């Protein structure tokens, strides 16, 4: 289980956002942003709202972490 550092929380366009920076196993820092609709947070306690936002970040991280695969045919340097 990874731990992260709070970066920022904000509200915009009917959603609440939470940004957390995690140092992954390879040592690289990655920032994950999770969001929850403000309507879904209505009626929740502050602790429940925080938990919902943290869960959204965890789900975003889980969605973005996968096993690396070898894709032949790519050079080590790609100009974008």
What does this 3D model show about the protein?
The chain is α+β, with helices and mostly antiparallel strands. The protein has one domain (4-64). It is built from 2 helices and 3 strands; from the N terminus they run βββαα. It has a 3-stranded antiparallel beta sheet. The radius of gyration is 16 Å and the shape is elongated. It starts with a strand and ends in a 16-residue tail after the last helix.
| Coarse morphology | elongated
Structural class: alpha+beta
Helix and strand string, N-terminal first?
Answer: EEEHH
Helix fraction, binned, reads 25-40%
User: Biggest sheet, in brief?
Assistant: 3 strands, antiparallel
Tally of individual helices: 2
Distance between the termini: 34 Å
Overall number of structural domains? 1
Rg, alpha carbons: 16 Å
> Stretches where pLDDT falls below 50 for ≥5 residues?
none
Q: How would you state the average pLDDT, rounded?
A: 87
Number of strands: 3
How would you summarize the topology of this molecule?
Elements (H helix, E strand, L loop, with lengths): L3 E9 L2 E9 L5 E9 H4 L4 H19 L16
Antiparallel strand pairs: 1-2, 2-3
Gist of the model:
The protein has 80 residues and is of the alpha+beta class. It has helices at 38-41, 46-64; strands at 4-12, 15-23, 29-37.
């Amino acid at each position: 289980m990874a731990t992260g550092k709070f970066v920022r929380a904000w509200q915009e366009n009917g959603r609440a956002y939470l940004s957390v920076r995690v140092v992954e196993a390879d040592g690289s820092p990655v920032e994950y942003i999770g969001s929850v609709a403000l309507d879904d947070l209505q009626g929740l306690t502050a602790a429940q709202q925080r938990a919902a936002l943290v869960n959204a970040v965890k789900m975003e991280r889980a969605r973005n972490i996968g096993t690396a695969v070898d894709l032949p045919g790519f050079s080590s340097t790609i100009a974008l």
